[in-house]
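lol forgot to send this yesterday, sorry. struct tokens for the thing we talked abt
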């Protein structure tokens, strides 16, 4: 089963919600997770596999990305 997660930030940006997502996904190895998040830094890759999560970053690599994420995310 596949689950899609929308989040304005993920690694390397760490907060309480990001820690919670990591804990939940680590405890459910039978599921496959896809996360769509804002890029916010040019150095970050557009796709990255982090443990049990396929992380897809959208945007231009600028802090403004988290504000336009609602439009680009879908």
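and heres what i got for the seq, position by position
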């Amino acid at each position: 089963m596949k689950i899609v997660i929308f989040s304005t930030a993920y690694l390397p940006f760490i907060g309480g919600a990001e820690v919670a997502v990591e804990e939940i996904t680590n405890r459910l190895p039978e599921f496959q997770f896809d996360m769509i998040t804002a890029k916010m830094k040019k150095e970050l890759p557009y796709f990255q596999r982090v443990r049990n999560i396929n992380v897809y970053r959208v945007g231009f690599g600028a802090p403004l990305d988290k504000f336009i994420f609602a439009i680009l995310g879908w």
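The two ends are 20 Å apart (CA to CA). anyway ping me if u want another try
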